[in-house]
């Protein structure tokens, strides 16, 4: 058997840094479909209609993009939308905070047996609370591994060495599962 690579990005979370701070009262008074949420303002921005969180620091949060191209498109759409309503600000930088990937092993796993084999690693499995095993590697990545072989990978800030790290994880699981 080989390590099947079906890796697919399912979510990008990013912070868009603007040229100047936001006046949250201005956003509340000028934009439609906005509401205060503690120390920030959330707005539904068409056509995506996902909530966008605006902070007084001049940043806003984007979630749900499936590619860096889509991320830039959503960020530019938000800026066009606020400018349309008279909020003058421009993008300085887009910082990716997290990428979430899905992958799949080509075999099923007995997580009860596997967790015993991973005693020397940062891994936990509590089936009465969650059906997946949580594994953290030395590179800051977190893997949720399910008995079906499905893997959710979070904490991906940089793609440098990412595929190698995932391969190391999959090789370790294969080895510890005696496959």
SS summary, helix count: 4
The end-to-end distance, rounded to whole angstroms, is 8 Å
Strand order of the largest sheet: 2-3-4-5-1-6-10-9-8-7
Q: Given the C-alpha coordinates, what overall shape results?
A: elongated
Based on secondary structure, the structural category is alpha+beta
Q: Could you tell me the number of beta strands?
A: 10
CATH class of the largest domain: Alpha Beta
CATH superfamily of the largest domain: TATA-Binding Protein
Cα-based radius of gyration, to the nearest Å? 20 Å
Order of helices and strands: EHEEEEHEHEEEEH
Strand content: 35-45%
CATH architect. name of the largest domain: 2-Layer Sandwich
List the helices and strands and how they pair.
Elements: E1 8-18, H1 24-30, E2 34-37, E3 40-45, E4 50-55, E5 59-65, H2 68-84, E6 91-104, H3 111-117, E7 122-124, E8 132-136, E9 142-146, E10 150-154, H4 162-176
Antiparallel strand pairs: 1-5, 1-6, 2-3, 3-4, 4-5, 6-10, 7-8, 8-9, 9-10
């Amino acid at each position: 058997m080989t390590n099947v690579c079906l890796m697919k990005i399912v979510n990008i979370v990013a912070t868009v840094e603007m040229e100047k701070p936001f006046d949250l009262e201005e956003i509340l008074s000028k934009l439609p479909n906005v509401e205060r949420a503690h120390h920030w303002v959330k707005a539904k921005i068409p056509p995506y209609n996902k909530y966008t969180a605006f902070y007084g620091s001049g940043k806003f949060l984007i979630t749900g993009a499936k590619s860096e191209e889509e991320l830039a498109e959503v960020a530019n759409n938000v800026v066009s939308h606020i400018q349309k309503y008279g909020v003058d600000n421009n993008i300085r930088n887009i910082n990716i905070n997290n990428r979430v990937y899905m992958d799949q092993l080509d075999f099923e796993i007995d997580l009860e047996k596997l967790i015993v084999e991973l005693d020397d690693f940062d891994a936990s499995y509590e089936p009465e609370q969650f059906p997946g095993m949580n594994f953290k590697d030395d590179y800051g990545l977190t893997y949720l591994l399910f008995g079906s072989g499905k893997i959710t990978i979070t904490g991906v800030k940089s793609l440098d060495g990412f595929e190698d790290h995932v391969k190391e994880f999959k090789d370790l699981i294969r080895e510890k599962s005696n496959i």
